[in-house]
Amino acid sequence: MSNASVLDQAKAVRDGESFDVARMNEWLQAQVPGLDGTPEVQQFSGGASNLTYLLRYPDRDLILRRPPFGHKAKGAHDMAREFRIQEALKPVYPATPTMVALCEDPAIMDCDFYVMDRIKGIIPRANLPRGMTLSEVDTRQLCQGVIDKLIELHQVDYQAAGLEHIGKGAGYVKRQIDGWSHRYGKSKTWNVPGWKYVMDWLQANMPDDVATVVIHNDFRFDNLVLDADDPQKIIGVLDWEMATLGDPLMELGNTMSYWVQADDDRLIQMMRRQPTHLPGMFTRREVVDYYCDRMNLSADNWTFYEVYGLFRLAVILQQIYYRYHHKQTRNPAFKHFWLFNHYLHWRSKKAIKAG
Predict the structure, then answer these.
(1) Which domain holds residue 67?
(2) Which of 85, 117, 149 finishes a domain?
(3) What is the band of 53 on the pLDDT scale with cuts at 50, 70, 90?
């Protein structure tokens, strides 16, 4: 198996998502001594938010990140914030990409953007790349490494790293429950459940924050980069747009909402976007127990965090479906998201009853 065959590959830039390469290149060469030539520009297909481009120079591969084209919600897609968080994290969390340059000059592009070094490797999406196979033992090692990488992040001393300003401090749990409940109300359509019982239960059972740590807020396999020569080794953590200071068990609840295990039913298997179904992967319960043991946290109140993660995921899907329902997007991939909303509602009520 060629290592190149399993690397995450860029493709041609999509229609309507190109930019003035010559202008960008002139600016970038002024920021980076010794950067020569004109880059070949391609685009990565992964990600549903910010746009990611490969700048292939004769002797160096760089990555450019910019917001999507068109209208952007206030406070969203803050490139300068994402750049500065990663710049501060890199010395204490080496899996963070190396930042190269930040542009806040609208004369260069129609938006802020930043450039970073490329971390060349494998990004594990719904399935491993064609031609790549892992034994059950190797898969379990990879899985443990993923959880260890989350634990490592949550153990970062954010004050020493100068990151006190990226969050609002105590009260994170309440802010999340209030915020996601409000967003659901704004995005509800006639064909989905009201979630009143679940939202009322979350409000009535809110624990205090167990800690305040740096959280990634979208920690999944498809935001990780694996070493092509040693796929059990995680060499990069990508997409820091939503990083903040928050409660570590709330982040674990978010991560577990995407964790589809081998014995899950058929409908949730249709939602799977990471290879957590493979033989050797931890179950959700094993992840929680492993994580809490190493973080010295109690899993006694896990039902709350599980239900929160499912509810948050339902709101994210519903916000996307709302745009499809009201013909703001015609992407057929969103057509059945309302069904997943019903499914996650059922899962949430089931978890509350079992808990």
Answers:
(1) 3-117
(2) 117
(3) very high
Calculate the average pLDDT of the chain. Answer: 93
What single-letter DSSP state applies at residue 49?
A: S
The string of pLDDT tens digits covering residues 24-33 is 999 999 999 9
Paired with 214 in beta bridges are: 245
Phi first, then psi: give them for residue 324, nearest 5 degrees.
-70, -45
Rounded to whole angstroms, the Cα distance separating 351 from 349 reads 5
User: Are 348 and 198 a contacting pair, CB within 8 Å?
Assistant: yes
Distance in angstroms (rounded) separating the CA atoms of residues 216 and 250: 11
Residue 130 lies in a domain: no
The reply to whether 326 and 205 lie within a common domain is yes
- The residue with tokens 């009853």 is 353
302-325 helix and 337-354 helix, angle to the nearest 10 degrees = 160
Torsion 72-64-213-249 (CA) sign: positive
Q: Which residues pair with 114 in a beta bridge?
A: 65, 102
333 Cβ contact list (under 8 Å, min separation 6) = none
Between CA 281 and CA 144, with CA 247 as vertex, the angle to 5 degrees is 20
